[in-house]
C-alpha cells in the first residue's frame, strides 16, 4: 500500500555500519572494536551537508542510542530520531521519539523539517537496517569491511549484492566530478563511475586492524517488492501509507 501523497519528494535513505569478517557489528550492546578513525569517518558522513542550515535525519535504535557516548552530542547538523516501542519520554539529546520506522522516515518530509533535511542516515541496529534496505528511498550502504574476526552477537543483515552493488572507487580519485568515465579492464569497456567524496579507496589500518571503506549502491531500475504495487506497476519513490502523521508538542510519535 502506498501513500496518496503523490507530491511527497523522498529523501535518500543511507545505511552506515562497520562489519567484521562474519558480518558481526555488535556485542553486548556495544561495538566489538575500538577504532577511533573509523568512528570519525562515520561522524563525518552523518554530519555532512551541502550548505549551512541543512540537516540530516539520524535514525537510531534504542540500544544504539543509549550505548553512544554522551559526549558525542551534539552532532553537527543532526536531527536525532530514536526508535522504541517501550519508552515514552524523549531521551536527552534526542529530537524525536518514534514507535515505528515509517514515522521516523516521514519526519524528513514533514512540514517542520522538509526544508532542512537532506539525507536520512540509518545508524542501526538490525531491525532498522532491514527496514531501511527494503525501503524505496534507500540508495546507498556505507559499509566498512573490518578485515578481522571479533566475537559478536549482532550481525548486519544479509542484502542482495546484485541489487546493492559494490562501487569501485579506484577510478574516482580526488576529483570533484560526481561521475567520471573510466575503463573497466574486467568488462573491457568504458563505464561510468560515481565518485563518493570522502571515501578513501586505500585499505586503512588502525590499532593493528585492517579495514576498507565500501559503498554499495542500489542499481537503477531495480524494483523492490515495495515499489511494485498490486497491479504490477512500478510506483514512484513514495513511502508506505500508515496514515497521516503529525508531530506533536512532545516530539513523541
Ligand atoms: N558496527 C556498527 O556499525 C554498528 C551499527 C549499529 C549498531 N551496532 C551494534 O549493534 C547493537 C545494537 O543493535 P540492535 O539491533 O541490538 O539494537 P537497536 O536497533 O539499537 O535497538 C533495538 C531496539 O530499538 C527499537 N526498535 C527497533 N526497531 C524498531 C521499530 N521498527 N520500531 C520501533 N522501535 C524499534 C526497539 O526498542 P524497544 O525495545 O524500546 O521497543 C528495539 O528493542 C549494539 O551492539 C551496537 O553497538 C553496531
From TrEMBL:
It holds the Pfam family DHFR_1. It comes from the Eukaryota. Pathway: Cofactor biosynthesis; tetrahydrofolate biosynthesis; 5,6,7,8-tetrahydrofolate from 7,8-dihydrofolate: step 1/1. Residues 12-218 form the DHFR domain. One of its GO terms (biological process) is tetrahydrofolate biosynthetic process. One of its GO terms (molecular function) is NADP binding. Its EC number is 1.5.1.3. Residues 231-253 are annotated as: Disordered. It is an enzyme of class 1 (oxidoreductase). InterPro entries: DHFR, DHFR-like_dom_sf, DHFR_dom. It catalyses: (6S)-5,6,7,8-tetrahydrofolate + NADP(+) = 7,8-dihydrofolate + NADPH + H(+). One of its GO terms (cellular component) is mitochondrion. Keywords: NADP, One-carbon metabolism, Oxidoreductase. CDD domains: DHFR. Belongs to the dihydrofolate reductase family. This is dihydrofolate reductase. It comes from Paramormyrops kingsleyae.
